[in-house]
UniProtKB/TrEMBL annotation:
Organism: Prosthecodimorpha staleyi
Name listed for the protein in its UniProt record: MarR family transcriptional regulator
One GO process term, biological-process aspect: response to stress
Domain HTH marR-type intervals: 55-194
Database matches in SUPFAM superfamilies: Winged helix' DNA-binding domain
Length: 198
């Protein structure tokens, strides 16, 4: 299934990149670019290139950011329209499906890279809708564990199957060679970042 880890979102439905990925939005802001990757501002160049010519590295980053945000926007729109659920709640369900013994609120917050307050809001909705249960540990009343219900897991798997089809349709539109080159390039980038400890 193609569910992603995922991130903070507005509970009104789909969310902007700034809402869903504060770290990406902050980085874009520092670089002087919008979070959607639509960058046209001049870049200072000390190496003799014309002013306004971005570094290749910056151009690659902006294209990665723009493509990621576009795919996320499409998926968010489709899952809300088809299943009446936000992408943020879907992402939390995906994390819980991978954790049959459940997750503490802190673990869920860490996996989703959002605050405990954001997780609490998502969990409140999912409990209301019958997707999850929320229990306090007997040995530690300060710790709350959330788990998928049987009905919640069945409903999530149906959504995940559609989500996977959508992702395959979006990425599958690339020519095989382009797709393979993109995969190799992204793998190389990930290895490079891992080596930096990023």
């Amino acid at each position: 299934m193609a569910a992603r880890p995922r991130r903070a979102k507005s509970e009104t439905g789909s969310a902007s990149a700034a809402e869903t990925r504060p770290e990406a939005a902050a980085a874009a802001s520092v670089a002087g670019v919008p979070a959607d990757g639509s960058y046209q501002a001049p870049v200072a160049v000390p190496d003799g290139r014309p002013a306004g010519t971005p570094h290749d590295e910056l151009r690659v980053w902006l294209r990665l950011l723009g493509a990621s945000n576009r795919i996320e926007s499409i998926l968010s729109s489709r899952i809300t329209k088809e299943f009446g659920i936000s992408l943020a709640r879907f992402d939390l369900l995906a994390q819980l499906e991978r954790a049959p013994d459940g997750l503490t609120m802190t673990d869920a917050s860490r996996r989703m890279m959002v605050t405990n307050g954001a997780i609490t809001s998502l969990v409140d909705r999912l409990v209301e809708e019958g997707f999850v249960t929320r229990e306090t540990r007997a040995e530690d009343r300060r710790t709350t564990v959330i788990r998928l219900t049987a009905e919640g897991r069945a409903r999530f798997l149906a959504m995940a199957a559609s989500h996977e089809d959508w992702v395959v349709g979006l990425i599958g539109g690339l020519e095989p060679q382009a797709r393979n080159e993109l995969s190799r390039g992204l793998s190389a980038l990930r290895r490079h970042l891992d080596a930096l400890g990023a």
